[in-house]
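Private note to self, pasted from the team thread so I don't lose it. Backbone tokens:
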């Protein structure tokens, strides 16, 4: 049974993501920010159409689902400006989160893989085409006992009201790039001493997006990204394009830093 606990007095919010963010590697989120910088913030759909409060709510949702032991006072600390009177409406936000948790946990597919999968798995890898060190943090990854199959599941909150709308959002918000980036993180996972990677013998990789409606009736949608023709291939082209842009920027910065040092010496 899902806890209906109401968040109470402020406590320190444990944020295990800090160590991940500190890793000097490129993430898919870094590529989103790079795209926003190059194309202009308001030209990027995720920046135009997803309000900051919705992004914060999405982070709170993921923490409730995947890291319930670190919840603490997540709503008070992550959603302090949702309403003028947070003490009155924080329980309302908590109930919304609990409703979404119930919706997911009552689904047989989600319940199975929440139980069997590694959650918030961090994977370090090197992109073979650019040589850039990358990182990914996967919502859920399940590897079969003999490691012949691997399944990545990424859970999204969505305003879509139909399966078709959710599928459309997968294109609008660069989910193809995310899916390709995450799948390749397993294929090219870094290993010490050059030993074969953890998924080196895996024959089949699948990636499934699960969307849960934020509004009633809180339906679930599922998109098997690996079954859509050219979806992963196009996403791979996109993330490698932005990795090359990232490398170009790093190369441009290095001579400037050297020149500044020479002038000050």
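Design output:
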């Amino acid at each position: 049974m899902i806890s209906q606990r109401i968040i109470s007095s402020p406590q320190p919010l444990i944020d295990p993501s800090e160590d991940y963010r500190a890793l000097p590697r490129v993430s898919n989120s870094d590529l989103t920010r790079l795209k926003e910088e190059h194309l202009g913030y308001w030209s990027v759909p995720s920046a135009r159409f997803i309000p900051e409060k919705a992004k914060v709510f999405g982070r709170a949702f993921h923490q409730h689902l995947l890291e319930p032991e670190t919840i603490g006072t997540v709503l008070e600390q992550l959603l302090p400006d949702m309403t003028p009177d947070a003490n009155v409406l924080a329980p309302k936000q908590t109930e919304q989160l609990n409703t979404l948790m119930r919706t997911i946990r009552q689904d047989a597919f989600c319940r199975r893989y929440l139980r069997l999968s590694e959650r918030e798995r961090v994977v370090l890898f090197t992109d073979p085409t650019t040589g850039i060190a990358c990182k990914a943090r996967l919502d859920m990854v399940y590897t079969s006992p003999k490691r012949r199959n691997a399944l990545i599941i990424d859970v999204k909150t969505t305003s879509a009201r139909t399966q078709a709308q959710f599928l459309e959002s997968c294109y609008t918000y660069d989910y193809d790039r995310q899916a390709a980036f995450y799948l390749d993180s397993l294929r090219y996972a870094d290993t010490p001493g050059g030993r074969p990677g953890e998924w080196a013998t895996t024959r089949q990789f699948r990636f499934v997006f699960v969307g849960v409606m934020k509004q009633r009736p809180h339906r679930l949608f599922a998109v098997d990204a690996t079954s859509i023709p050219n979806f992963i291939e196009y996403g791979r082209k996109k993330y490698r394009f932005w990795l090359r842009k990232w490398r170009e920027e790093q190369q441009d910065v290095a001579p400037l830093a050297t020149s500044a040092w020479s002038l000050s010496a």
